[in-house]
Structures are given as structure tokens and as C-alpha cells.
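Need a sequence for this fold. Nothing fancy.
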């Protein structure tokens, strides 16, 4: 299990709401898929509630097709032919897949498969611009949307950029479109439940430009690790404690950590 090096790698202080993208080698884009065990549950969600986790605009088919073919070639698997291309591609990898296209002067989310959402859903997100998607994020006054748009405009198809984002959640569910349910459970729970119910949730995000359509494929791979287990390593404990305690109030409010505060305090 790679919990300790993973948290140490990505827990460099409080959550940062900046671009934070770094280049990685092409071979490391989707492989190895260290969350492949999620695929069974992910496919059950796709089968049971496709309209809840997959949404697409009518004009997105070309970009969906290009994105799906690129994913399938990368992982060496075949796409199902009886469903939308991006949904079919989502069955092949643990990552959620999001297609952004520039319509006029605005980058817009035109298709997505979202089976491990961090407290939002596909129906909310589809059709939204970069500005609407990032509007609630506390940026400290810098132009986050403008910087992301410039990256989308300028980076080459053979490049892959990667970033990490983390939070703490109650319970080990990956499919969490409704964060309020988890927060309500945490608010009513005894602190004796904290060691088994607090989890570090890390998103590994990548972006890649599609050469034919010019769209951008955004991927999100979620890892969940029991926080109490992580904190048994002294270095990981120090890294987490500093990051948690140093997070400013606007970040804590945006992350909606208030119901978790007493539980985290208990295990620290």
C-alpha cells in the first residue's frame, strides 16, 4: 500500500487553489491504473444510473469519439459500441473523464462521465463554462480561470499535465455527489467512530489536448485512504497536522470541514 509516500507527496501544506499543473511523461498518463479495483463498482453505477453520471451536449460527439479512442488505445482495451463514446471509455479506466471544448471564445464542459464526484454531479456540470465551474473557489484574488484557459489554448497534444487536490471526508464512498449527506452523518456521529470513518480523499487530475478536435480531455482519479492509518507514520502525521491546522478559514468553509473538525482533533 502506497499510503505514506502518497500523502507525503501531496500534502505540502493546506489545499492550494491555484493551477498547480506539472508535466508528466506520456507513458504515465493513465497507466498503471492503481485504482483498477474500482472498475467493478463503477460499471455497476454506469449500468444502474447512466443519466446521473453521464451527460453530454449534442454537439460533443466528435470530441467524445476522439477522447474515447485515445483512452482505449492507451489502455489496450476495446470500446463498447452501443453507448456514447465517452461513457464507453469510462468503463475502461478508474478515472472520471471530462471533455472541454472551446465554443467561440469560451471553454465549455460539453461531455462528462462522473462516477467518483467530489460533491457535485454531472447534471450540474454539463454545459458550464470554466468561469461557472470555478466560480466558488477561493483563489486569493488571482485569475484562476484566465490561467487555465491560457493553458488549454496553448499546450500541445503530446503533452500531459498533472495536479493533485485533497480533502478529508466521512466514510469510504467514492460516489459522493451529495456531500451534505456525509456531513450530516459526521455531525451526528460519536468521536469514537472517527478512526474508522475519516478518510483522506485525493484527486489525481490530468489534462491532455486532443489533436483532431482541439478539445481538452480532463481526467480525475480518486484515491481514498483511512486517515487514522495514515497518521500512524510520524512523518505523514506531521505533514497532515501542519496542512490541516494551517488551512485558512475561507478554505475550511469552501471544503465544508466544520462537521469534521472535532473528529480530526480526536484522532490527532
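Here you go.
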Amino acid at each position: 500500500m502506497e499510503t505514506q509516500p502518497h500523502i507525503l507527496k501531496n500534502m505540502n501544506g493546506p489545499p492550494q487553489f491555484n493551477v498547480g499543473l506539472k508535466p508528466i511523461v506520456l507513458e504515465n498518463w493513465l497507466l498503471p491504473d492503481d485504482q483498477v479495483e474500482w472498475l467493478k463498482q463503477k460499471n455497476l453505477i454506469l449500468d444502474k444510473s447512466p443519466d446521473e453520471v453521464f451527460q453530454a451536449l449534442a454537439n460533443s460527439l466528435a470530441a467524445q469519439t476522439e477522447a474515447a479512442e485515445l483512452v482505449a488505445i492507451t489502455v489496450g482495451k476495446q470500446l463498447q459500441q452501443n453507448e456514447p463514446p465517452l461513457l464507453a471509455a469510462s468503463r475502461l479506466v478508474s478515472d472520471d473523464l471530462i471533455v472541454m471544448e472551446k465554443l467561440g471564445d469560451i471553454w465549455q464542459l460539453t461531455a462528462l462521465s462522473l462516477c467518483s464526484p467530489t460533491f457535485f454531479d454531472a447534471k450540474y456540470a454539463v454545459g458550464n463554462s470554466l468561469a461557472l465551474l470555478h466560480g466558488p473557489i477561493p483563489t486569493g484574488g488571482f485569475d484562476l480561470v484566465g490561467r487555465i484557459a491560457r493553458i488549454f489554448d496553448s499546450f500541445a497534444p503530446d503533452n500531459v499535465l498533472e495536479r493533485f487536490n485533497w480533502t478529508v471526508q466521512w466514510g469510504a464512498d467514492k460516489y459522493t455527489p451529495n456531500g451534505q449527506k456525509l456531513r450530516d452523518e459526521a455531525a451526528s456521529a460519536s468521536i469514537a467512530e472517527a478512526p474508522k470513518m475519516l478518510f483522506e480523499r485525493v484527486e489525481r487530475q490530468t489534462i491532455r489536448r486532443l489533436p483532431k478536435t482541439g478539445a481538452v480531455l480532463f481526467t480525475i482519479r480518486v484515491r481514498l485512504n483511512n486517515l487514522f492509518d495514515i497518521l500512524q507514520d510520524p512523518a505523514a502525521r506531521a505533514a497532515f497536522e501542519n496542512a490541516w491546522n494551517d488551512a485558512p478559514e475561507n478554505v475550511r468553509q469552501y471544503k465544508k470541514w466544520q462537521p469534521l473538525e472535532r473528529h480530526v482533533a480526536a484522532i490527532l
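For context: The radius of gyration is 18 Å.
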